[in-house]
Amino acid sequence: MIIRSADFVQSAPTVDTCPTDGRPEFAFIGRSNVGKSSLINMLTDRKDLAKTSQTPGKTQLLNHFIINDEWYLVDMPGYGYAKTGKALRKSWEVFIEDYILNRKTLINLFVLIDSRHEALKNDLEFISWLGQKNIPFSIVYTKIDKMSSSKLNKNLIAYKKKLHLEWDILPPIFTTSSEAIFGRDELLNYIENILDNLKIDK
Ligand code: GTP
Ligand code: MG
After folding, report:
1. SS3 helix, strand, coil % of the chain, rounded to 5?
2. Which domains occur in the chain, in start order?
3. Residue 15 pLDDT > 80
4. 3-state class (DSSP) for residue 21
5. Which atom of ligand 1 lies closest to the CA of 38?
6. Which long-range contacts (CB under 8 A, 24 or more apart) does 186-190 make?
7. How far away, in angstroms, is 81 Cα from ligand 2 center?
8. Are 31 and 121 in contact (CB under 8 A)?
9. Least packed by Cβ within 10 Å: which of 33, 42, 48, 168?
């Protein structure tokens, strides 16, 4: 897919305040600091489209970016940020859950996982919950430039093993690096295929 245009549209604090034009959207979720905003910049080839930060908790609202005037990329707040107070964490959870369960134009959720770490409890719980709720999702490993390919393979095999404890069939899995621009074509082609199928179904 060629990205002809990519523009920030708005930040929404609730599902009700998201865009209402019905265009399909793809959202990026995952722990704080996993690289959601960086991945959006890498995919769109726009350096500062989504705000990134070394400090976790940078993205706090649902940020919509319109791509090729046709579909949205959505940058979501991260979960599992330890320094967030309990009350705020709860309100984030409600907000994120509401969006995932009730946003009718959400076509696919990309769940980002830091490829350096072994499977973390809250990521696995979140993936389980998506399965229970029948939410279409894919897994995207991030920051693969930070590791040797042998260590990466080891981590991916271990992660798949964990997922297989619960799932016979795994969702699509992508490996990416926003730093080294790796995995861009695979992700964009995947999105393009889904969008093409939506058009055929119409
Ligand atoms: P929140 O909005 O706080 O939830 O974080 P986020 O998931 O949007 O992460 P963000 O894109 O802001 O990136 C967090 C940090 O990781 C930044 O310092 C990025 O430069 C760095 N980072 C992101 N992706 C990569 C990558 O592929 N490789 C490397 N080496 N660093 C990365
Ligand atoms: Mg962010």
Report:
1. 40, 25, 40
2. 6-201 (3.40.50.300)
3. yes
4. coil
5. 11
6. 187/43, 187/110, 187/140, 188/1, 188/3, 188/43, 189/1, 190/138
7. 12
8. no
9. 168
Q: Any idea which residue has 């907000």 for tokens? A: 95
Query: What number of CA atoms fall less than 13 Å from residue 84's CA on the CB side?
Result: 21
Percent share of the chain, pLDDT over 70: 92
Taking 60 as the threshold, does the pLDDT of residue 99 lie above it? Answer: yes
pLDDT band at residue 62 under the 50/70/90 scheme: very high
Verify whether ligand 1 is closer than 6 Å to residue 145 (CB atom).
yes
Q: Tell which one of 52, 84, 143 to mutate to probe ligand 1, the residue whose CB is within 8 A of the most ligand atoms.
A: 52
Whether residue 175 has its Cβ less than 6 Å from ligand 1:
no
Distance CA 118, CA 162 (A): 10
Is the pLDDT higher at 186 or at 122?
186
Which residue has the least CA distance to atom 22 on ligand 1? Answer: 35
Band (107; pLDDT cuts 50, 70, 90) = very high
For the chain, helix (H) and strand (E) counts, in that order, are 5, 7
